[in-house]
Specification:
256 residues; alpha/beta; Rossmann fold; seven-stranded parallel beta sheet; 8 helices; 15% strand; binds NADP nicotinamide-adenine-dinucleotide phosphate
């Protein structure tokens, strides 16, 4: 149980860059102790350097797509604190072949990196989240899991499964005092990320895509996702569970 005099402890998978790092920075700005994660020590060192010196930032290097990796992540978190106030499960990868049929290896890879990793991380971290109760889980999905947008099929299906997992999990964990929500970003411009590369390769096509499919006619920023993730993870959001939110400049019309 968290007391208002001790900092919240927030663990974030997939947080050495991009949306995950922006989330970790938002929590740190709010005074929380944060635990960042990625698959390389170098990535973790670079991520830690992106925080002010006064921030309480720890790193756990682990590949959370494997059972052993997810457990190593949870063990690393336990070495920082005996409880978690929030888990932000951010790992994901949209770089899969488009079209159909989809090679089986692509199905397996897309599900490992967009669905199973979340289940493994949640299961490994449950004892810490129970120790932190009331606590919360925020899963990072994608609007590709809500509507047909032309994303790779196995990515869209895995993100759709994640959406349903969040709903089911929120029921299963409600009486444990653990809230579960899912946030679906739209097109987010991450430094060095996929959209930046696509825009550099064909600026006119990307400009036309934004004009035609995003009412705000622009990319979102990692910080715009992070502020919502930080909000739903706060104790003040105590009645928010089983909810899905989109952050997409109006691209989808779903309120699910
Ligand atoms: N950017 C977008 O437009 C967009 C849109 C919709 C949804 N999303 C979702 O938002 C989330 C973050 O996307 P992003 O664009 O910010 O990603 P990103 O820039 O590619 O960052 C991914 C982060 O996850 C880490 N990571 C990757 N695989 C990992 C694994 N198996 N175990 C542990 N860490 C791992 C990476 O570090 P290492 O590589 O060093 O491990 C990195 O820190 C994903 O779930 C993505 O599907 C993004």
């Amino acid at each position: 149980m968290h007391s208002s005099s001790t900092p919240r402890v927030i663990a974030l998978t997939g947080s050495t860059r991009g949306i995950g790092l922006a989330c970790a920075q938002a929590f740190a700005r709010a005074g929380a102790t944060v635990i960042v994660n990625g698959r390389t020590e170098q990535g973790i060192a670079e991520a830690k350097a992106a925080f002010p010196e006064t921030a309480q930032v720890y790193g756990v290097c682990a590949d959370v797509t494997t059972e052993a990796g997810a457990q190593a992540f949870a063990d690393g978190c336990r070495a920082v604190a005996p409880r978690l106030d929030a888990l932000i499960s951010c790992v994901g990868n949209g770089a899969w072949a488009t079209g159909y049929p989809v090679p089986w290896s692509e199905w397996e890879g897309a599900f490992a990196q967009n669905f199973w990793c979340h289940v493994r991380t949640v299961d490994a971290c449950l004892p810490l989240l129970r120790a932190g109760s009331p606590s919360s889980i925020c899963l990072i999905g994608s609007i590709a899991g809500l509507q047909h947008l032309g994303a790779p099929v196995p990515y869209a299906v895995a993100k759709s499964a994640l959406h349903t997992y969040a709903k089911e999990l929120s029921f299963s964990l409600a009486t444990d005092g653990i809230r579960v929500n899912v946030i679906h970003p739209g097109n987010i411009l991450v430094p060095g990320g996929r959209w930046e590369q696509k825009r550099a390769a064909d600026p006119d096509r990307i400009h036309a895509m934004l004009q035609a499919s995003v009412p705000q006619q622009r990319f979102g920023t990692p910080e715009e996702v992070a502020s919502l993730v930080e909000y739903v993870s706060r104790p003040e959001a105590a009645f928010v569970t089983g909810s899905a939110f989109v952050v997409d400049g109006g691209q989808t019309t779903s309120f699910s």
